[in-house]
Amino acid sequence: xxxxxxxxxxxxxxxxxxxxxxxxxxxxxxxxxxxxxxxxxxxxxxxxxxxxxxxxxxxxxxxxxxxxxxxxxxxxxxxxxxxxxxxxxxxxxxxxxxxxxxxxxxxxxxxxxxxxxxxxxxxxxxxxxxxxxxxxxxxxxxxxxxxxxxxxxxxxxxxxxxxxxxxxxxxxxxxxxxxxxxxxxxxxxxxxxxxxxxxxxxxxxxxxxxxxxxxxxxxxxxxxxxxxxxxxxxxxxxxxxxxxxxxxxxxxxxxxxxxxxx
Length: 262
Known about the structure:
Elements lengths: L1 H30 L11 H29 L4 H18 L1 H16 L7 E3 L4 E7 L3 E5 L5 E5 H6 L3 E2 L6 E9 L5 H17 L9 E7 L4 E9 L4 H22 L10
Antiparallel strand pairs: 1-2, 1-5, 2-3, 3-4, 6-8, 7-8
Helix pairs in contact: 1-2, 6-7
C-alpha cells in the first residue's frame, strides 16, 4: 500500500514537472534561436512570453492540486468551494490591481504602441519606456517620468506618433506686398521644385500656393510631408529645406516679409 501511494504521488509530481519542462521548451522555441540568442522580436514579446509562461505554470499547478486531491480521495469539492469564496473576496479587495492586470494584458495583446514610441493621450505625451503588470511609464519631453495605470489605457484614446508613415508640415511664408505676380509664381514653382528634389519628402502630396493677402505681406502656403524615422532627422531635413527656400528667394530677388518691431 505504501509503495502504491508513493508511486501515485510520484506520478502526480512527475506529470506537473513534465508540464513545466514542456512549457519552458515552448518558450525557448518561440523566444530563442539556436545558440541561446534571442530572436529578433519586439520588446512586447519579451514581456508577453514570460507572462504566458507563468500563467500556464499556475494553471498546471492548479490542475496538479486537483489531480492530487482526487488521487488521494481528499475533499475536493470543499477545497474548491473554499478557494472560490476566497478568490471572490480577494477579487473585491484587489479589484484595482486586477483592473490594471487586465489593462496590461490588453496592451500586450493589442499592441497599440511599442516601447520607444512617442504617444499622446488626453493627459500624457512622451516616449514609452516600460510596460509593467500594473502601469506604463512614459518619459515626457521635459524629462520627467509619468506612471499611467494600465486600467486607464483600456479606454484612453492613444495617438501613436511613432507609427506615422510621414510627418506633416504646414507653414506660411510672407512675401513683401509689392512683389510682382510673376515673381510670386516663380517663387512658388521654385519651392515646389525644391520639395520634388528633396530626398526625404513625399512626392505625391504637397501644395505651394499664394493663400491669402495679409495686412503686411502676401501669404504663401507651404504644405508638405517628410519621410523621417525620428524627430532629430525630421528637424534636420526641415532645416535643410527651409534654407533652400531662403536661397531660392535670394536668387529670384524675392523679399521675405518679416514682422516690424518698434
